[in-house]
# Entry
Amino acid sequence: MSAGGVQAADPTHPLMRDFIGLNGHTVQFKPDLYQPVCRLVRDYHPVSWDLEKATSTPAPFPMAKNRVDWDKVYGSWKAGGWTTDACLMFESVVQSDWADLEKDAHNYGEAFAREFGPSGKRQLVESVEIGNEPGKWNDADYSRMFRSMAEGVRKGDPRMKIATCNLTAGASGSYEKSVGCIAPFPQLVDILTIHSYAQLVGWPTWKRSFPEDPALKKYLPDVLGLCAWRDVHMPGKPVWITEFGYDSTTQPQQKSGDFAKWEGVTDEQQAQWLVRSLLVFSTLPVERAYIYFFDDKDQASLHASAGLTRNFKPKPSYYAVSHLRKTLGDFRFRRVVTDEPRKLRVQEYLNQGTPKRVIWAVWAPNGESGGQAITLSHVPGKLVSSSRMPLTDAPAHTGEARQSKPGTVELTVSGSPIYLVLEP
# Structure
């Protein structure tokens, strides 16, 4: 099977270790446990913890009004080598409880940035998002909130990066706001964010599919749509995918209720499809992609079994993503070599420190678990080593690929990517 097609790539793609992120949550996140996975963490930061219902009374930073110590939380993350993005969920405060929306939001943003920003008092947080999924706020009110809080952040610490909530290039929905809400304020936008899930159908199954599935109408197209809007209206602004993921549970189907027909994926599929999503996302004009979620309690319902760990015990996806970071961490995407829907996908990554060393990531872009023996052609160099994505903490399977003659490699291609290390 030939691997001859070539697609040029943007040389500014980030290193993989600067691309992979993980969604955590305040005091529940265990920074030491997840160090093998990545070093970028996104926190769901409830503004209601800081302000409660008295929005005009400042938060007693570094403490929240509910007595959570943010210096301890974010300080432990920084000590572990993490870069923190705080999603300031203003929507956790009931809209009618904001005493003076513009003034209180401005003051809160200013105080948060001055306390925790990169040039602030504690220097613990790199960026903030103004809201998570504020779908219940109308567009005009979200625009008011975004402008007010963002102006406060700018005043509190001009070095603090300001990101949007979950955006769509189309009309606002139940979980996303239209780009039109933030379009008037380009000077206040440093990062555009989007949530994207590989969902084939909605209620009542919420069935998801493998990331390369041609039947998916929103997963990659929605991200590309935001990037296209960015290129026209806010050129140069980074796009972050701040949520994507898959649910895998050991629990039986619920017999009644909203999730009686819900469909999850297997642990193996979660591992394969998360890793392959990251590989495919790395080819797009986006700067980061944050996995949802860090941990789950093994429940058979939507978003309730999406963790890389289950009750803080690693799932196969934990080992698979950790292996991806270890293997490609110092490499950046260079080009798509082959893209044969449902058959073969080959992507090339270039090493930052050793430009002559490359890695080919090779897999079958389908939902099947079996493998097929193939021969790659036009391979640019000598096969130094190979390893396949692992599902356990045992060493990754190595030496599965063979090179009997220059320019070719024989291997078994499957849904679990195999990484070929090549030198001229």
Notes: The helical segments are 47-51, 70-79, 101-116, 139-156, 219-233, 267-281, 316-328. The chain has two domains: 16-328, 331-423. Residues 1-9 have pLDDT under 50 and may be disordered. The CA atoms of residues 183 and 233 lie 8 Å apart.
